Amino acid sequence: MKTIIRADVMGYCMGVERAIKIAEKELEANRRVISLGLLIHNAIENQRLADLGLEFQEVETLPEQGNGQTLLIRAHGLDPKVQKSLKERGYHLVDATCPLVVMNQKDIVKARESGLYTVIIGKPTHAEILAMKGFADEHRLSIISSEEEAQVLDIEETDLFILSQTTLRPDLLLRIKTILSKRYQLHEYRQSICPATQDRQKAVKALSEKVDVIIVVGDSHSANTRGLYESALDAGIPAYLVSQASALSCQQISAYERVGITAGASVPDYVIDEVEDLLKKFLE
Description:
Blueprint: E1 3-6, H1 14-28, E2 33-36, H2 43-52, E3 55-57, E4 70-73, H3 80-88, E5 92-95, H4 99-113, E6 117-121, H5 127-133, E7 141-144, H6 147-152, E8 159-164, H7 170-181, E9 185-187, H8 195-208, E10 213-217, H9 223-234, E11 239-242, H10 250-253, E12 258-263, H11 269-283
Parallel strand pairs: 1-12, 2-3, 2-4, 4-5, 6-7, 6-8, 8-9, 10-11, 10-12
Helix pairs in contact: 8-9
């Protein structure tokens, strides 16, 4: 008999849920609200918010004068110099930065004031990393995203403060830290990967021991979703990454008896439920 098994932990994290609630609250107040970039890495939920009236713009496209316009800082945060400039131009900022991201930003400031060279581990073009850069001394900062880049990192100073993108795969961070520790003295104030990311990683690894295939629900642009997909493959389990039920080809999984489902931290419950419902209909 074919079975469907959900990961023990999946779907919305605290930071994403908080950002969405803040956006909804601002929209309920009948204000015109502009999110500085896509609020979260989930096209379906962003579209739902757009239908409620939320607009999406990049900082570079905003008019010079804000005239009190409400801007929403997304969960990934925003460069403090950009924030200062927007306020001076007359914009009203509502901060939906994830509290865990804020803690990382404060740690960067702490390290900078302590005279430590900062190494951020993450994707250089990711919104969270772009915001983090603004809290560091740009002349004493490196951003790396792979073991290969860690191998060739060449810094004269021996004491480094390191932290990572909150959605980085924990095993990747560990491997990079191991490489760097052979040449540098590493300093960390605390674990910078979001606990939700770690919990979902552990859950997908546990799930891989119970199933024959894993369906990962989420946006392909989401770092933590991609991490879940890669972890499933690393466990030797066939995996499919789908954004929603309509993107799932049930024929692909017809040969498997035990089907697992997990989802990224930006995926609402209704999207997960729709995928599971489709699977149930097909497997009946």
